[in-house]
Design a protein that fits this description.
307 residues, Four Helix Bundle (Hemerythrin (Met), subunit A), transferase, lipid metabolism, CDP-OH_P_trans, transmembrane helix
Length: 307
């Protein structure tokens, strides 16, 4: 046997001896240790405060601006119109913030809808007092707006589920409502110009003798200081100083140019009419949807009794 062959056999024997477990190890074969990385301990989930979400904070600011506009509404048309318009414009910003920060909530949707309905209703109440002859029209618009949105929201929650948004309307149920809610551009234009129309009427109550003949009354004649009556008395009869901010605002109010109020009212009138048509469609559709649910519940109850 050559020396090379003897060396190979000796090496194989040494290798087999190293694989045999020693008595101290109780027959266990040692395996190399592996470095196991420790998994990080789970962090506690941060608790979110829905009331402090960005879109809801914008909603609160809308409420504050609305209250401020109502405070200035009887005597300060310019200040009221600016505050009211900013509040309406923020209506589009809160939806964008909800999508940007991924903070869409049911509370935010309800807050937005309630703010819209209450804001418009308060302005229509003022118009009812400014033009008592047309009060029934403005009161009817308030009822239609409230009833339409309430029934639509209730039908969506009861038939579509608690997590269903009132803006998610199936085209098979109503093509008009689908187009109205599906396009953010259409929704914004309709809502914005609807408010612009009523703001224009509000400014016309201070500036148009055609609609408010009492504006032509001489200032020497006594006039009512009732909020909503555009025939305001002389500033000196309401304010101690005729040069105070309130007196000057009243003087400017009675000198408003009616051109721009007439222009924005005429331009926005068709959109306002379409918005009221959508409210009627929404009211009828919600009523039919809830009636279908009632019939389905009655059928299930009858079938349960038969069984």
């Amino acid at each position: 046997m050559s020396a090379k062959t003897r060396r190979q056999k000796a090496a194989q024997a040494a290798q087999s001896d190293s694989d045999v477990p020693s008595p101290a190890s109780n027959g266990a074969v040692k395996t190399p240790k592996r470095n196991k990385s420790k998994s990080p301990s789970p962090q506690p989930e941060a608790r979110e405060n829905v009331f402090l979400f960005a879109p809801n904070l914008i909603g609160y600011s809308r409420v504050v601006l609305t209250i401020a506009s109502l405070y200035y509404m009887p005597l300060h048309p310019r200040t009221c119109s600016i505050l009211y318009s900013v509040s309406c414009l923020l209506d589009a910003l809160d939806g964008y913030a909800a999508r940007y920060f991924n903070q869409s909530t049911t509370f935010g949707a309800v807050l937005d809808m309630v703010t819209d309905r209450c804001t418009t209703a308060c302005l229509l109440v003022f118009l009812s007092s400014a033009w008592p002859r047309w009060a029934i029209v403005f009161q009817g618009l308030i009822c239609l707006d409230m009833a339409s949105h309430y029934m639509h929201m209730y039908a969506t929650l009861s038939r579509g589920g608690a997590s269903q948004s009132h803006k998610k309307v199936d085209a098979t149920r109503s093509w008009v409502l689908y187009q109205y809610y599906h396009s953010k551009t259409v929704l914004f234009i309709c809502c914005a110009l609807n408010e612009v129309f009523f703001i224009g009427l509000y400014l016309l109550s201070f500036s148009s003798p055609t609609l408010s003949p009492s504006l032509l009354q001489p200032t020497e004649q006594p006039a009512s200081a009732q909020p909503g009556n555009p025939a305001h008395p002389a500033p000196s009869s309401l304010f101690a100083s005729p040069w105070s901010a309130g007196a000057l605002e009243m003087a400017r109010a009675n000198k408003l140019d009616s051109f721009w109020p007439w222009a924005i009212t005429a331009v926005s009138a068709p959109v306002m009419a379409f918005k009221q048509f959508v409210n009627v469609v929404q009211l009828v559709n919600a009523s039919q949807w809830m009636a279908e649910g009632d019939l389905a519940s009655r059928r299930e109850a009858r079938n349960g009794k038969k069984r």
